[in-house]
Amino acid sequence: MKNRFDLIIFDWDGTLIDSIDWIVHCLQTAAQQCACVIPESQAARDVIGLSISNACDQLFPGVDQQTLTRLTACYQHTFSSRQLNRENLFPGVYEMLVELKQSGYQLAVATGKTRAGLQQALQATATEELFCITRCSDETASKPDPLMLHQIMQHTQAANERSLMVGDSTHDLQMAINAQISAIAVSCGAHPENILQQYNPLMCLQEPAELLNIMRG
Fold first, then answer.
1. Domain containing 168: what range?
2. Deepest of 21, 89, 167, 196, by most Cβ within 10 A of its Cβ?
3. Cα(192)–Cα(172) distance, rounded to whole angstroms?
Protein backbone atom coordinates (compact mmCIF):
# COMPACT_ATOMS: atom_id res chain seq x y z
CA MET A 1 0.00 0.00 0.00
CA LYS A 2 3.08 2.21 -0.17
CA ASN A 3 2.53 5.52 -2.02
CA ARG A 4 -1.23 4.99 -2.25
CA PHE A 5 -2.12 7.69 0.32
CA ASP A 6 -0.91 11.17 1.25
CA LEU A 7 -3.15 11.74 4.27
CA ILE A 8 -3.82 9.33 7.15
CA ILE A 9 -6.63 10.32 9.51
CA PHE A 10 -6.78 8.52 12.84
CA ASP A 11 -9.54 8.19 15.35
CA TRP A 12 -8.17 8.69 18.87
CA ASP A 13 -9.86 6.57 21.56
CA GLY A 14 -9.53 2.85 20.91
CA THR A 15 -7.42 3.45 17.80
CA LEU A 16 -4.27 5.19 19.03
CA ILE A 17 -4.83 5.05 22.77
CA ASP A 18 -6.04 2.17 24.95
CA SER A 19 -9.01 3.92 26.58
CA ILE A 20 -12.15 1.95 25.73
CA ASP A 21 -12.56 0.21 29.11
CA TRP A 22 -12.04 3.54 30.87
CA ILE A 23 -14.68 5.25 28.72
CA VAL A 24 -17.14 2.43 29.48
CA HIS A 25 -16.41 2.85 33.19
CA CYS A 26 -16.96 6.62 32.97
CA LEU A 27 -20.27 6.23 31.14
CA GLN A 28 -21.49 3.66 33.66
CA THR A 29 -20.34 5.83 36.58
CA ALA A 30 -22.18 8.85 35.16
CA ALA A 31 -25.36 6.79 34.87
CA GLN A 32 -25.05 5.66 38.47
CA GLN A 33 -24.39 9.18 39.75
CA CYS A 34 -27.43 10.51 37.85
CA ALA A 35 -29.74 7.66 38.93
CA CYS A 36 -30.12 6.39 35.36
CA VAL A 37 -30.17 2.81 34.15
CA ILE A 38 -26.53 1.70 33.96
CA PRO A 39 -25.76 0.61 30.39
CA GLU A 40 -24.26 -2.77 29.65
CA SER A 41 -20.62 -2.76 28.60
CA GLN A 42 -21.30 -3.42 24.91
CA ALA A 43 -24.02 -0.77 24.77
CA ALA A 44 -21.51 1.73 26.13
CA ARG A 45 -18.89 0.56 23.62
CA ASP A 46 -21.37 1.01 20.79
CA VAL A 47 -21.61 4.78 21.34
CA ILE A 48 -17.86 5.41 21.62
CA GLY A 49 -16.81 7.68 18.79
CA LEU A 50 -19.96 9.78 18.91
CA SER A 51 -19.93 13.17 20.59
CA ILE A 52 -20.67 12.81 24.31
CA SER A 53 -24.05 14.51 23.87
CA ASN A 54 -25.04 12.15 21.05
CA ALA A 55 -23.72 9.19 23.03
CA CYS A 56 -25.86 10.12 26.04
CA ASP A 57 -28.90 10.69 23.83
CA GLN A 58 -28.49 7.17 22.50
CA LEU A 59 -27.68 5.48 25.81
CA PHE A 60 -30.38 7.24 27.83
CA PRO A 61 -33.41 7.77 25.56
CA GLY A 62 -36.24 9.78 26.99
CA VAL A 63 -34.11 11.47 29.65
CA ASP A 64 -34.78 15.19 30.11
CA GLN A 65 -32.27 17.84 29.06
CA GLN A 66 -31.26 18.69 32.63
CA THR A 67 -30.34 15.08 33.31
CA LEU A 68 -28.46 14.82 30.00
CA THR A 69 -26.44 17.88 30.99
CA ARG A 70 -25.63 16.27 34.35
CA LEU A 71 -24.68 12.99 32.67
CA THR A 72 -22.28 14.80 30.36
CA ALA A 73 -20.71 16.73 33.24
CA CYS A 74 -20.34 13.61 35.40
CA TYR A 75 -18.77 11.69 32.51
CA GLN A 76 -16.28 14.44 31.76
CA HIS A 77 -15.35 14.86 35.43
CA THR A 78 -14.63 11.16 35.87
CA PHE A 79 -12.80 10.85 32.56
CA SER A 80 -10.47 13.77 33.30
CA SER A 81 -9.57 12.33 36.72
CA ARG A 82 -7.30 9.80 35.06
CA GLN A 83 -3.73 10.99 34.48
CA LEU A 84 -2.69 10.04 30.95
CA ASN A 85 0.83 9.60 29.62
CA ARG A 86 2.51 8.15 26.54
CA GLU A 87 2.34 4.67 28.07
CA ASN A 88 -1.43 4.72 27.51
CA LEU A 89 -0.93 4.65 23.74
CA PHE A 90 -1.16 1.20 22.20
CA PRO A 91 2.25 -0.49 21.86
CA GLY A 92 4.34 0.97 19.04
CA VAL A 93 1.90 3.76 18.21
CA TYR A 94 4.18 6.69 19.03
CA GLU A 95 7.05 5.22 17.01
CA MET A 96 4.66 4.49 14.13
CA LEU A 97 3.39 8.07 14.05
CA VAL A 98 6.92 9.48 14.11
CA GLU A 99 8.05 7.27 11.23
CA LEU A 100 4.94 7.94 9.15
CA LYS A 101 5.41 11.68 9.54
CA GLN A 102 9.12 11.43 8.71
CA SER A 103 8.16 9.42 5.62
CA GLY A 104 6.12 12.35 4.33
CA TYR A 105 2.56 11.39 5.29
CA GLN A 106 0.24 14.09 6.55
CA LEU A 107 -1.30 12.86 9.79
CA ALA A 108 -4.58 14.01 11.31
CA VAL A 109 -7.05 13.12 14.06
CA ALA A 110 -10.84 12.97 13.73
CA THR A 111 -12.42 12.27 17.11
CA GLY A 112 -15.63 12.30 19.07
CA LYS A 113 -13.76 13.95 21.95
CA THR A 114 -14.16 17.59 22.83
CA ARG A 115 -11.37 20.00 21.93
CA ALA A 116 -10.44 20.37 25.60
CA GLY A 117 -10.33 16.59 26.04
CA LEU A 118 -8.21 16.00 22.97
CA GLN A 119 -5.77 18.80 23.80
CA GLN A 120 -5.28 17.32 27.26
CA ALA A 121 -4.61 13.90 25.74
CA LEU A 122 -2.26 15.22 23.04
CA GLN A 123 -0.19 17.11 25.59
CA ALA A 124 -0.12 14.21 28.04
CA THR A 125 1.14 11.83 25.34
CA ALA A 126 3.44 14.42 23.68
CA THR A 127 1.91 13.74 20.27
CA GLU A 128 0.44 17.12 19.30
CA GLU A 129 3.31 18.07 16.97
CA LEU A 130 2.86 14.87 14.95
CA PHE A 131 -0.51 15.95 13.53
CA CYS A 132 -1.03 18.70 10.99
CA ILE A 133 -4.72 19.11 11.94
CA THR A 134 -7.15 17.65 14.47
CA ARG A 135 -10.93 17.93 14.50
CA CYS A 136 -13.24 17.36 17.46
CA SER A 137 -16.95 16.78 17.82
CA ASP A 138 -17.66 20.09 19.56
CA GLU A 139 -16.15 21.99 16.60
CA THR A 140 -18.02 20.26 13.81
CA ALA A 141 -20.63 17.57 13.17
CA SER A 142 -20.45 14.34 15.17
CA LYS A 143 -19.54 11.06 13.48
CA PRO A 144 -20.71 9.46 11.24
CA ASP A 145 -21.36 12.79 9.50
CA PRO A 146 -18.39 13.23 7.10
CA LEU A 147 -17.95 16.97 7.76
CA MET A 148 -14.84 16.64 9.93
CA LEU A 149 -13.16 14.50 7.26
CA HIS A 150 -14.07 17.02 4.57
CA GLN A 151 -12.61 19.80 6.70
CA ILE A 152 -9.38 17.86 7.24
CA MET A 153 -9.03 17.08 3.54
CA GLN A 154 -9.70 20.69 2.63
CA HIS A 155 -7.05 21.89 5.10
CA THR A 156 -4.43 19.42 3.84
CA GLN A 157 -5.50 19.72 0.17
CA ALA A 158 -5.64 15.91 -0.01
CA ALA A 159 -7.86 14.26 -2.59
CA ASN A 160 -10.46 11.70 -1.51
CA GLU A 161 -8.65 8.88 -3.25
CA ARG A 162 -5.39 9.82 -1.47
CA SER A 163 -6.95 9.94 2.01
CA LEU A 164 -7.25 7.08 4.51
CA MET A 165 -9.32 6.79 7.71
CA VAL A 166 -8.09 4.47 10.48
CA GLY A 167 -10.57 3.65 13.23
CA ASP A 168 -11.89 1.10 15.69
CA SER A 169 -15.64 1.73 15.57
CA THR A 170 -18.50 1.43 13.14
CA HIS A 171 -18.91 5.22 13.42
CA ASP A 172 -15.40 5.72 12.04
CA LEU A 173 -15.97 3.38 9.12
CA GLN A 174 -19.41 4.77 8.30
CA MET A 175 -17.96 8.28 8.36
CA ALA A 176 -15.29 7.18 5.86
CA ILE A 177 -17.98 5.67 3.62
CA ASN A 178 -19.98 8.91 3.85
CA ALA A 179 -16.88 10.91 2.91
CA GLN A 180 -16.07 8.50 0.08
CA ILE A 181 -12.57 7.69 1.31
CA SER A 182 -10.83 4.40 2.09
CA ALA A 183 -10.65 3.00 5.61
CA ILE A 184 -8.62 0.52 7.62
CA ALA A 185 -10.17 -0.91 10.78
CA VAL A 186 -8.45 -1.90 14.02
CA SER A 187 -10.11 -4.49 16.25
CA CYS A 188 -8.47 -3.48 19.55
CA GLY A 189 -11.11 -0.90 20.42
CA ALA A 190 -14.87 -0.45 20.51
CA HIS A 191 -16.02 -3.08 17.99
CA PRO A 192 -14.77 -6.58 17.09
CA GLU A 193 -13.55 -7.60 13.65
CA ASN A 194 -16.74 -9.39 12.58
CA ILE A 195 -18.72 -6.16 13.08
CA LEU A 196 -16.09 -3.92 11.48
CA GLN A 197 -15.83 -6.15 8.40
CA GLN A 198 -19.46 -5.40 7.59
CA TYR A 199 -18.31 -1.90 6.55
CA ASN A 200 -15.83 -3.28 3.97
CA PRO A 201 -12.59 -1.70 5.19
CA LEU A 202 -9.47 -2.32 3.11
CA MET A 203 -8.32 -4.57 5.96
CA CYS A 204 -8.78 -5.10 9.68
CA LEU A 205 -5.71 -4.97 11.91
CA GLN A 206 -5.45 -6.42 15.40
CA GLU A 207 -3.14 -3.63 16.60
CA PRO A 208 -2.73 -0.12 15.15
CA ALA A 209 1.08 -0.33 14.93
CA GLU A 210 0.66 -3.01 12.24
CA LEU A 211 -0.20 -0.12 9.92
CA LEU A 212 3.46 0.90 9.74
CA ASN A 213 4.58 -2.20 7.85
CA ILE A 214 1.62 -1.88 5.50
CA MET A 215 2.55 1.70 4.64
CA ARG A 216 6.18 0.74 4.19
CA GLY A 217 5.35 -1.84 1.73
1. 7-17+86-216
2. 167
3. 13
